[in-house]
Amino acid sequence: MNYQMQARLTKRFNRLxxxxxxxxxxxxxxxxxxxxxxxxxxxxxxxxxxxxxxxPKVAQWVNYVRxxxxxxxxxxxxxxxxxxFTVAVLTTVTSAMGGYAFxxxxxxxSGKLFTIIIALLIVPEIVLLIPQFILFARxxxxxxxxxxxxxxxxxxxxxxxxxxxFFLSFPRELEEAAEVDGCGPFRIFxxxxxxxxxxxxxxxxxxxxxxxxxxxxxxxxxxxxxxTLLGVKMAKAFVNPQGVTLNTVSMAANVLYILPLxxxxxxxxxxxxxxxxxxxxxx
Length: 283
Description:
Layout: H1 2-39, H2 62-70, H3 73-104, H4 110-120, H5 125-138, H6 146-153, H7 157-167, H8 172-180, H9 185-193, H10 198-213, H11 217-222, H12 230-236, H13 247-278
Helix pairs in contact: 2-13, 3-6, 3-7, 3-10, 10-13
């Protein structure tokens, strides 16, 4: 009896400890976001004021209005959204096709080719930045969006791996039944594999979109100011005529900058979590 009571107490303590850790982590994550929101409605004079005020004297909602008067925020955001959506769709499609091929077809050299793709995962992207820039410059593709489009058409090694692992879990009987009905490999991919891969599709789409939406370095070196993306525009647009950064307006712009990503995550979090879990290591 004492053993059962001790086991129950231990279970309750472990649960309480787990909830306590989760609450502490949630608070630590929330503090920077709350600070960003509060700072976005402060006056610039309150940004570095001492003593530090947590809340502004008067909420400056005009900071959000000034975003659109200082810079063409909507135009740049729409441009970035279109490019991000295009890259996300192309990368998802090409990576899914690559993952399907590696998961379902066994041909000479496919194992070695997949090993090369896995090896590409350990190559830092920054190492490829200069060679890629030289290549696109010689092709006269700088100051265009082709570097992103061509990269998307080649797929992503990590996402190819994700799709391969997910498709390996599909039973062979599905393909055999479809082949009996006269389906070819491409039709099987479109009508059976893709419709059942919604978790991974959602995960890859959002990760690809975030990669373009939050990109700073590549737009900085590839694009002129008139064609640049939102990440670069956010970094240098909000200054007064003297060149001094408008800190509170920048914070307000950052709120709008991260808002679409937060909305997308909450709309697709169920698929994202399922996609990550179900794309585990399989033989």
